Amino acid sequence: MSGTSIDGVDAALVELSGGRSPLKLKLLAAQTFPYEELAPPNLRSQLLAAASNQPLPLSQLAQLDNTVAQAFARAAQRIQTHQPPAQLIGSHGQTVFHAPPPHPGHLGYSLQLGRGDLIAHHSGLPTVSNFRAADIAVGGQGAPLVPPIDACLLAHPQRDRCIQNLGGIGNVTYLPAGCHQNFQGILGWDTGPANILIDLAITQLTQGKQQYDHNGQWAACGTPDPDLVQQWLTHPFFQQPPPKSTGREDFGPELLQQYHQQAQHLGPADWLATLTDLTAASIADSYKRFLPQLPQDLILCGGGSRNPYLKSRLQTHLPQTTLSSSDDWGLNADFKEAIAFAILAYWRLQGHPSNLPSVTGASKPVPLGDIHPP
Fold it and tell me: How many structural domains are present in the chain?
């Protein structure tokens, strides 16, 4: 898959057995392939433009769809080097537009580029893609889709847990104690920005020479402005109850520019610290608003789980909660999302419904993904 940051393709080669419960997983190989290694050098800039709602001809959209598919097929082939050959590909693709249902009874829309049929053609492997569409067709948000996998792999019999993904956009899975037995009581939603605003700010501050705050070192030199954070927490998305999902449409360059105008009194380190604290504060705020109780454990994954400063801000806002990484529980924190789409593809071939209506708001459970034979 490739996430909101549009920085490359995360590929994971996994060995799976069993069904939904128990599900057995072994990670054989995992790697992030920058788009520049897999495709023409202007692909990332074209995708960023498309995801920023800049108009483009349909012919160019079709070409982008093909180019992304070719990049994903190359990533799938490279991850098999010196490994057992794969039997199936699950591809989330590259999201360039996401519009949740505007009102109950209406349908949303989500567009992921990277045609599954072309990936199957180039790789010679059956490919499952377009995972969000089936959930959207029955009234769901089409996201988040990872919570049932979190329940299978990370639920605890006695402890309430939150699994917090810190990619470009953040999303949470709430796993009440023992939920892996019946999938009851599981909640989940997009929490808002995780790394996206920080990454955009770093790119601007360094004129593109740096794309993220390595280990949160720059932000750690600053001090957050609590008044600004509280002001930004009034954003309508944070007030909206779940089910909910979001993307660059809500938290992208335009919003960052607006926030930057309000933060002119801050130096670069304080500006980054304040954006980082917004991520932490918005996550904690959403737990306090929308969970039946705060979790005993908070398990982090995604790129932001490698940011000690972000983790320290989360601990400050959730002092009674024990923080850890999914690495600590045997699930690779950097590649958990890619692993999840391998599992969703596996479940699709088994015919299992794999959305959770309690998370997405769909009217019923449905199998997710379109199957493309080679």
Answer: 2
